[in-house]
Design goal:
binds flavin mononucleotide, alpha/beta, 370 residues, eight-stranded parallel β-barrel
């Protein structure tokens, strides 16, 4: 069992770093979100303070690296490299699903290395929601947290991936109430995250009521797990699964849309992820109401291509771009950025209006007061 999980994880890394597994026809919706340029920013770019406090933790910038991996020796190196840079930059990081290490103790170090290399950074443990109806409970959750001395745990929802992969676990009945049980018993925050297909307002409302302390929308427009499974099926010459991966490649709620649906529905911190590829998109996410912006695939790619140096470069560019976008909108800190006017157009505005969400107040809100 643990070996199978390891092989699958190694496949995911190889495929996500080698092939184009990004959404093709679906986009994040951030292209429909526009800042109103401020010709008189009246602030000093060098004095912009990117720091923010979320989940009672101080981040030097509102940026995280999303859950990617663990469970293999290569994954150990990837986690170590990412953790080192995350610590250096004062950001946050999620490890990949810890199931492999819960099944085989020898694999714990492939996750624990993250805390070793990032003694003070915000670290998020990770388990699958569907595992909670397949025997996992508070004991396994506590073990996953202890393994990396985590600040929070992410319970991931991946029905799309489970539906298109051969070893898919598709009985999701009861996942919500199990999440509620965990959230009530645990003293650390439970964050529920998707894995690239987004979260709608209806689910966000139920998750908040269940006691969840944060939601990571992980919407569509970036890495597609259907695409990852397409390439796995192709390698195995499984035409049926390959077709499923292809047809569902672009399934999901675009990230910007999911983000607005969730922030207008709940009162807990929301993390934006899924296809965030530069600092302007991170800035748009914060302006729409996200507390943090997070990304996975570009950091994985950087790690494989150039290790620590390339991760540093990727994240420092992202932060510099974010700072620039803040300067050009006159936002001195992330709280101010959440108040600058943004205009939502196109499919994103249309969807949100049809679903009864408010897009106009974003455009009409007054810029940061000077
Ligand atoms: C190779 C790979 C492995 C992943 N494994 C996990 C995982 O174990 N647990 C999880 O919650 N998300 C996992 N994800 C999903 C990411 O955390 C993220 O939600 C998704 O990739 C969308 O972000 P992106 O478009 O920036 O890549 C994985 C992503 C990639 C690329």
């Amino acid at each position: 069992m643990a070996e199978k999980t390891q092989k699958r994880k190694a496949d995911h890394i190889r495929i996500a770093a080698t092939y184009n597994v990004q959404a093709k026809r679906n986009t994040t919706g951030f292209e429909d979100v526009h800042f109103v340029h401020k010709a008189l920013p009246e602030i000093d770019k060098d004095k912009i303070d990117l720091s923010t406090v979320v989940f009672d933790h101080k981040f030097s910038a509102p940026i995280m690296v999303s859950a990617i991996t663990g469970g293999t020796s290569e994954a150990r190196k990837i986690n170590a490299a990412i953790a080192m840079v995350v610590e250096e930059f004062g950001l946050g990081m999620g490890v990949g699903s810890q199931r492999a290490a819960l099944e085989d103790k020898r694999l714990e170090k492939t996750f624990a290395v993250a805390r070793k290399k990032a003694p003070t950074a915000f670290l998020v443990a990770n388990i699958g929601g569907v595992q909670l109806v397949r025997g996992y409970g508070i004991k396994e959750v506590r073990k996953a947290i202890e393994m990396i001395d985590a600040d929070a745990i992410a319970i991931h929802l991946n029905p799309l991936q489970e539906a298109v992969q051969p070893e898919g676990e598709t009985s999701f009945h009861g996942v919500l109430s199990r999440i509620g049980e965990i959230a009530k018993e645990l003293d650390k925050p439970v964050i529920v995250k998707e894995t690239g297909a987004g979260i709608a307002a209806e689910e966000a409302r139920k998750l908040e009521a269940a006691g969840v302390k944060g939601i990571d929308v992980s919407g569509a427009g970036g890495t597609s797990f259907a695409a990852v499974e397409f390439f796995r099926a192709k390698g195995k010459r499984n035409f049926h699964r390959r077709r499923l991966g292809e047809v569902f490649w672009d399934w999901g709620i675009p990230t910007a849309i999911s983000l607005v649906e969730v922030v207008q529905t709940v009162n807990i911190p929301v993390i934006a992820s899924g296809g965030i590829r530069n600092g302007i998109e991170a800035a748009k996410a914060i302006a729409l109401g996200a507390s943090l912006a997070s990304l996975a695939q570009p950091v994985l790619q950087a790690t494989i291509e150039g290790g620590i140096k390339k991760i540093r470069k990727t994240l420092s560019l992202l932060i510099e771009e974010l700072r620039n976008a803040m300067f050009l909108t006159g936002a001195e800190n992330p709280k101010h950025l959440q108040k600058v006017p943004v205009v939502i157009t196109g499919k994103t505005a249309e969807w949100l209006k049809l679903r009864g969400f408010d897009v106009e107040s974003y455009a009409r809100r007054s810029a940061v007061s000077q």
